[in-house]
Amino acid sequence: MKVALTGHLRGASRAEADRVRAGLETHLRLTRADPGCLRFDVTPTDDPLVWRVSELFVNRAAFDAHQTRAGASDWARLTAGITRAYNITVIP
């Protein structure tokens, strides 16, 4: 079963938004290279402090491995404390 994550990353200030922009390119590249990643997009919205997040992984193990890797990454340190509002869905 595939696993999808959708939602938003929301900065509280221009400084937080700058931190997201500073690390986003590398985070996208590394995540798209994760085994089992079918789709990974973080796209800006009309609000300069908000990004739409959409992920799709082949299964729960691939999703969990991505979460573990990303949680220990420079991205996690750079964006610590920035609000994330995500929904995770298992797709049969």
Please tell me the CATH architecture by its name.
Answer: 2-Layer Sandwich
Q: Which fold name corresponds to the CATH topology? A: Alpha-Beta Plaits
Percent in strands: 35-45%
Quickly name the level 1 CATH class: Alpha Beta
Number of strands: 4
Q: Which value, in Å, is the CA radius of gyration?
A: 13 Å
Structurally, how many domains make up the residues? 1
| Uncertain residue segments | none
- Estimated structural class: alpha+beta
Fraction of helical residues: 25-40%
Shape: globular
Largest sheet: 4 strands, antiparallel
Topology order in helix (H) and strand (E) letters: EHEEHHE
Specify the number of helices. Answer: 3
Task: Provide mean pLDDT, rounded.
Answer: 98
Beginning-to-end CA distance, first to last residue? 5 Å
Topology readout:
Elements: E1 2-10, H1 14-32, E2 37-44, E3 50-57, H2 60-71, H3 74-78, E4 83-91
Antiparallel strand pairs: 1-3, 1-4, 2-3
What key phrases describe this protein's structure?
92 residues; Alpha-Beta Plaits; four-stranded antiparallel beta sheet; 3 helices; 4 strands; 39% helix; globular
Task: Give a description of the structure.
This protein is α+β, with helices and mostly antiparallel strands and 92 residues long. The chain has a single domain (2-91), classed as Alpha-Beta Plaits, CATH 3.30.70.100. It is built from three helices and four strands; from the N terminus they run βαββααβ. The protein has helices at residues 14-32, 60-71, 74-78; strands at 2-10, 37-44, 50-57, 83-91. Strands 2-3-1-4 form a four-stranded antiparallel beta sheet, covered by helices on one side. The longest helix has 19 residues, at 14-32. The radius of gyration is 13 Å and the shape is globular. It starts with a strand and ends with a strand. The model has no long low-confidence stretch (mean pLDDT 98).
